[in-house]
Amino acid sequence: MLELKGVSKRYAGGELALNNVSFNVAAGEVVALIGPSGAGKSTLIRCINQLVQPTDGQVLLNDSRLELLKGRQLRMARRQIGMIFQNYALVERLSVMENVLSGRLAYVGFWQSLLRRYPAADIKYATQLLDRVGLSEMLDKRSDALSGGQKQRVGIARALMQRPALLLVDEPTASLDPKSSRQIMRLLCELCREQNLAAIINIHDVALAQQFVSRVIGLQQGAVVFDGKPEALSEQVLTDIYGLEDWQEPADD
Fold this sequence. Notes:
Strand 9 (215-220) and strand 10 form a beta hairpin. The chain contains 10 helices and 10 strands. The relative contact order is 0.18. The model has no long low-confidence stretch (mean pLDDT 91). Helix 6 packs across helix 7. The radius of gyration is 19 Å and the shape is globular. It is α/β, with parallel strands linked by helices and 253 residues long. Strands 6-7-8-3-9-10 form a 6-stranded mixed beta sheet, with helices on both faces. The protein has a domain at 1-75 and 204-247: P-loop containing nucleotide triphosphate hydrolases (Rossmann fold, 3-Layer(aba) Sandwich), CATH 3.40.50. Residues 2-246 form the ABC transporter domain. Pfam families: ABC_tran.
């Protein structure tokens, strides 16, 4: 489904942000991407959706080499990739329904979207998604009136409006309280199973990743240093990824 082959990224200043990264993600598989700040997690996600061009290697989505695509071909390929953002990236003055429908912008055309003339099938699907993420009572509410957890649910529904094959999720719980964080992670994993979606979730909360996903990839200095089951994240493995720390002690606030 998604395959990375020897992906490296060196920036103009000489910094090696990714170093020969290779892995596959199957349809329906949810992978947590962990590692310290500066390990290359965000660069990796940006290389997958081609916001950053890899220096070397291949990025294949359903056998299409994304790093070779340009213009319209790249825009068409990006329809298959749904993005969910840490800061929600909603248009706050618009309603919940309007924000969700904006997930169809790559399909309906500029004037239809400007005039908010979406096909009936899109409106029906948006309504179904809002019901699934628990926001059916809020479709007409302005997005700036929502809580953080509710905004993230809108962002999830918007990404699913693309009917993607792959979700790229950037720190979906960083701004949420512990209860909302668990709810969002549970919802993401359930939706991926229901829709047979592959997902890569960039996440700092190791305990949350261990609780919900079936596979973890650890990056250190741009290289993969761990790829396995969450239960295999021993103290030594976490030290390899993050450096020395007392992993038995609770984190300081």
